[in-house]
Design brief:
Length: 187
């Protein structure tokens, strides 16, 4: 079954009419905007030309100076604190104080370094002392074990005494034996 073209579609010229009308309206609006902008620019140009003519007229009326003046000239007078001895003394005190502060800061830094080194040295000594005490304790334990293993020819009362007590009494016992032998010999 075939449909006729005339019944379903518009003629080719009629479908473009609304699009062309929209484009024409847009072009007219753009043209009007450009015309307004051009008119504003012409007015602005006329104002600028009038200002330039006014400036040129003033220049022609005034005599031209030989030299132009410096806009921000320095005064010939002295600075406000140039001869102030109190201000100068104050600056000298400030500089001296800064020098003293700097030297104190250096000394403090050096003292901190020395203190840190001393602390490190003390820690090393403490460690060495702890190692020596540990070795000494091991030796004492070995000596005490050797003393307990060896039978002594002393009385039963002395065997019950602790190792420390026996070690501390040993020098006194030796001294007694030395001095008691001298008393036995008549002079």
């Amino acid at each position: 079954m075939k449909l006729s073209r005339s019944a379903t579609a518009q003629p080719p010229e009629e479908k473009w009419i609304p699009l062309l009308a929209a484009e024409r309206r847009k072009l007219e609006e753009d043209h009007e905007a450009l015309r307004l902008r051009e008119e504003n620019l012409r007015e602005y140009e006329a104002r600028l030309r009038a200002l330039q003519a006014e400036i040129d007229a003033h220049r022609a009326a005034e005599p031209t100076p030989v030299r132009t003046a410096v806009p921000f000239a320095r005064s010939v007078s002295r600075t406000p604190f140039e001869g102030d001895s109190a201000l100068q003394a104050g600056w000298e005190k400030l500089h001296r104080a800064q020098e003293l502060f700097e030297s104190e800061r250096i000394h403090l830094r050096d003292e901190r370094i020395v203190t840190h080194e001393r602390e490190q040295q003390i820690k090393r000594r403490e460690k060495a002392l702890a190692e020596r005490e540990e070795k000494l304790a091991e030796r004492e334990a070995a000596l005490a074990a050797a003393v307990v293993k060896l039978p002594k020819e002393s009385d039963a009362g002395e065997q019950n005494l602790s190792t420390v007590t026996r070690l501390t009494r040993a020098p006194f016992a030796m001294a007694r034996s030395v001095f008691s032998s001298k008393k036995a010999k008549p002079v």
